[in-house]
Amino acid sequence: MNIEQELYKRAVDFIKQRYPIDWGGAAVMYTEDGDFLISVAPEVHNEGASLCIETGAICEAHKLMKKVTHSICVVRDDENSPFKILTPCGICQERLFYWGDDVKVGVYSKEDKIIFKTLKEVQPYYWYEAYRDDE
Q1: Does this model's pTM top 0.85?
Q2: 10-residue block means of pLDDT along the chain (135 residues)?
Q3: End-to-end distance of the chain based on CA atoms, in angstroms?
Q4: In b/e form, how buried is each residue of 85-120, taking b as 16+ CB within 10 angstroms?
């Protein structure tokens, strides 16, 4: 099993355990030194206080001073629904760019395939490119 399949499997297994019924979602990140970091979106009463599913694992990587190389976010609508991979939102892409544009992220596929793209492929016109020559 390759790393992308392992990330997907870990996300699905975690969702089944953490959310046995109804909606469920989890993000799994892989670090350069071989660790897996898993996070969920905190449940809040006010949607204005919500955070993306990936946020916890991103914060954990920073806390542990680990470089993220891969990230996947998986959700399902309920226990009878198929699992879907969600491409990171713009804010999470921004957070993941901290580790470089070669970070691989799971992206949505209509065919329910496990597909990973680098951040550079997902966002080829990333704003920071305007400043790379200044480095």
Answers
A1: yes
A2: 96 98 97 98 92 97 98 98 97 97 96 95 90 72
A3: 38
A4: bbbbeeebbebbbebebebbbbbeeeeeebebeebe
Four-residue CA torsion sign, 114, 117, 123, 125: negative
- Whole-angstrom Cα distance, residue 128 to residue 2? 31
Contact 30, 70 (CB under 8 A): yes
How far apart CA 99 and CA 119 sit, in angstroms, is: 10
20, 73, 43, 34: CA torsion to nearest 10 = 90
